[in-house]
What does this fold into?
Amino acid sequence: MRAAVVGWGIVAAVAVGVAVFYRGQEAIALPITTAGCGAALVAVVDALRTARRAPAHPVALAGDLPPSAARRSAGELYREDLVLRLDRLERYTLRPDLPARPGEDIGELVGLPTEEFRQYVGRRLDAIERSR
It folds into this structure.
């Protein structure tokens, strides 16, 4: 939310508070209440204009992407992604001739218990770091 919207909202709230404080004196309370309503109206109009101008980013539907790509586009990194990235990193550093990993191997690695998978990733990273 933009600062102008919040600012006009604060002005409206303060005006209502002052009007309530002077509720017995209509000559003061009425103009202040009118100003508060005007500030609230400006805040609402500004908020609507801001919302209408907000850029629309196309979002791929989950059914349009393979599961790993959908998760990756959501900013998440899963086990199969880690294995594939480690393979790619190893190709760039240690073994340029490393063949593509078969899907069955990835399935076995993904299915490892959490601690074993962490150890596997740690060993791979250590080997890559030692090669540098």
Observations:
- Residues 64-131 form one domain.
- The chain has two domains: 3-53, 64-131.
- The chain has a mean pLDDT of 76.
- Residues 4 and 89 are 48 Å apart (CA to CA).
